[in-house]
Amino acid sequence: MLRRVLCTMLLMGALPSLAEASQGHISVVLLGATGDLAKKYLWQGLFQLYIDQVSSGHSFTFHGAALTDLEPGQKLMFDVLKKLACPPDESPNRCAVLKDQFLKLSQYHQLKTSENYTALNREIEMLLHQEGLKEAGRIFYFSVPPFAYTEIARHINSSCRPPPGAWLRVVLEKPFGHDLESAQQMAAELMSFFREEEMYRVDHYLGKQAVAHILPFRDQNRQFLDPIWNRHHVERVEIVLKEIVDAKGRTSFYEQYGVIRDVLQNHLTEALMFLTMELPGNLSKAEEVLQCKLQALQSLRGLEKQSVVVGQYQAYASHVQEELQKGQDYVSTTPTFAGVLVHSDSLRWEGVPFLLTSGKALDERVGYVRVLFKNRAYCTQSEALRDAGHSQCKPKQIVFYIGHGALNTPAVLVSRNLFRPIMPKSTWREVVGQPDLHVFGQLLSDYYMYSPVKERDAYSVLISNIYHGRKDFFITTENLLASWAFWTPLLNSISHQAPRLYPGGVENQHFLDFEMMSGELAFTVAEPVELLNPSGPMPSDYKTIQSKFRQSPLVSAWSEVLISQLASDVEKTASRAVARSGQFHLALSGGSSPVALFQRLARHHYDFPWRHTHLWLVDERCVPLTDPESNFFSLHNHLLQNIRVPYFNVHPMPVHLHQRLCVEEDGGPELYAKEIMALVANASFDLVLLGVGTDGHTASLFPHSENGLEGAQAVVLTESPVKPHQRMSLSLPLINKAQQVFVLVMGKGKHDITTQISRVGHEPRKWPISGVNPSSGQLVWYVDYEALLG
Ligand code: BG6
């Protein structure tokens, strides 16, 4: 049938003549031809390819394939093809003719068994042979779930490769793995069937016109951008994809992936690379582009837990419970919203914050890449005058507007006080839009704004790039693995972190706003109480639970909630102490767990009586205070530098006297003890915050320590089994004199020790923490779910 059609069309002159078709014949095989993606985008993209390339000298046939039997499959597929739309820029008559041809050149195949693949190959060969057509190449578009890739790849490799001289291009859709390991595994499997140059991994954001124009824009505007496209001039960059839709109907996929894997690891990272990579000498050389991109990926600084804020829309849990048949008590920690602060360590970008944000169930649908420049000018005129001209005081920004939102079109915006950009006239035209509209804090009339002459959906752009063999629009194995290598440690570190709940839509208000502080991200407002303590169908695990641990009160919750509870309990204790005695003496431990508390206190407790607070150290490592290992250094970084506490009230441990560290005869412990006696009534701290080590140590009191577990010495030098070995510590008897002792235990790594100490009695020599037992004060345990439940 196809053969007859091709032949008749060639004779009718509807297709290029055989001589004209000298570029050869291209067979496009669409696997998953009746699936959602094919219906929504791929057939339309293939039709567009045909429209654009009908006179290119290539002839085409289109083979839709699926597992469905021939007849029903054929019907399903042609139902889709009949509905193909004509692009608005195409004349209706020409389009109707081309659509008719396209339908005739398309055929359905059932591709299930190896015989089916062999038969398809035979058909293609026969057709070409009988028409005397030279074969240019074959495109196999895998619009199927990744678990089917290996088998299809095997069949194609063994029975559908084109003959020498013709190319093979296989097109693959994400997800390309779930983390670095699974991506490596999948890549290795594919590489046993295909060569790197044969694989086209799709990231449809690379086909979005505004994203695809970032590199050409940078290239064509080098004269303006060269001096300013760097850390000296760029204040920050925002890469954003906000969505209104939620994950309903997709939870079986979404629950395993979440927003970071679904959108940030791929779409937003790709846009980030186009912004940060060095420009290759020649943009048309795909290899150079890909190499520069790889380098940019490799210069990203590793992400820490503190680089991210995550959220989950409130109805997500019930969507998961319904669709995945989970019980009411099922708790998902899959984020549906994430904000991530990324830094590049390249010379060009060091210090510039790149904020990547995406989420479902937000208040609007919009995507953009916004580069905000520093503004050093101070304008002396009145605002009316300032607004009238292209004042240097207005924001300076370049926005690659991906789509939707207020503009509802792809666009490139450049603040008029920056420069008038050079844009390719054949593909982008200058537009005025609604001049009074406010976008990114400026009137639209303050920008030069350009939109594509022909708006194309991402898949049409990508299919055209596959046809042209533009590998730089696709994800290579090296780039894919580099991206997973960057994201995987963060994904692992937050896999059990409870996301902040948000109501969804406009009701989110400011709950998801976040801010950068000391290189970290945090939500700007506290979590709404009604979401923390929902009375509806939410699992009770989201609440803080109160019970007993070692006969003392226990507060337990997911870490974020736990920390906010602890911080407010610390503040309450402080206010009570100040009301009682005018002062609050707080002794703080080091290590990683209290860092979150320090940050919380620094950012959310503006009423904290810092002016009346004395800060003491529970323990210290014998290193200079400026050493990152020092507990004081961490306290300074995460708390002191962000609050106003009088200098006189800060009491670091004297580990560094006479230019040497913790030498007994320098009498550091005695000095500290004296200072405590002098300032703290009865040497009884108002509050001591402790942690627990995996070996049961607390403060710097280790199992079998010779000093500090008992005896009269208030402050002692001790030996740690891990570096730095020497420490200074408050002794157990001094700790036990305190009026309140809070013990904070967080993380899965602490589960075993938590279980163990829940069972043991008073055995400080084995487990120093078990010796914490305030003689007249109160002990409270703050243990997160991971430490408590594993
Ligand atoms: C897909 C994600 O890759 O991109 C979806 O899987 C997301 O979750 C979509 O909705 C966004 O793409 P677009 O083109 O609608 O912005």
TrEMBL record:
A single Gene Ontology CC term: endoplasmic reticulum
Pfam families listed in its UniProt record: G6PD_C, G6PD_N, Glucosamine_iso
Segments forming domain Glucose-6-phosphate dehydrogenase NAD-binding: 29-211
Catalytic activity: D-glucosamine 6-phosphate + NADP(+) = 2-amino-2-deoxy-6-phospho-D-glucono-1,5-lactone + NADPH + 2 H(+); D-glucose 6-sulfate + NADP(+) = 6-sulfo-D-glucono-1,5-lactone + NADPH + H(+); D-glucose 6-phosphate + NAD(+) = 6-phospho-D-glucono-1,5-lactone + NADH + H(+); D-galactose 6-phosphate + NADP(+) = 6-phospho-D-galactono-1,5-lactone + NADPH + H(+)
Keyword field: Carbohydrate metabolism, Glucose metabolism, Hydrolase, NADP, Oxidoreductase, Signal
PROSITE patterns given in the database record: G6P_DEHYDROGENASE
Signal sequence bounds: 1-21
EC number in record: 1.1.1.363, 1.1.1.47, 3.1.1.31
SUPFAM superfamilies: Glyceraldehyde-3-phosphate dehydrogenase-like, C-terminal domain, NAD(P)-binding Rossmann-fold domains, NagB/RpiA/CoA transferase-like
Gene Ontology MF: a single term: glucose 1-dehydrogenase [NAD(P)+] activity
Occurrences of domain Glucose-6-phosphate dehydrogenase C-terminal (ranges): 217-507
Pathway: Carbohydrate degradation; pentose phosphate pathway; D-ribulose 5-phosphate from D-glucose 6-phosphate (oxidative stage): step 2/3
Any one GO BP annotation for this protein: pentose-phosphate shunt, oxidative branch
UniProt domain Glucosamine/galactosamine-6-phosphate isomerase: residue ranges: 559-781
UniProt xrefs under NCBIfam families: pgl
Protein family (similarity comment): In the C-terminal section; belongs to the glucosamine/galactosamine-6-phosphate isomerase family. 6-phosphogluconolactonase subfamily.
Record protein name field: GDH/6PGL endoplasmic bifunctional protein
Species annotation: Gallus gallus
Gene symbol of the encoding locus: H6PD
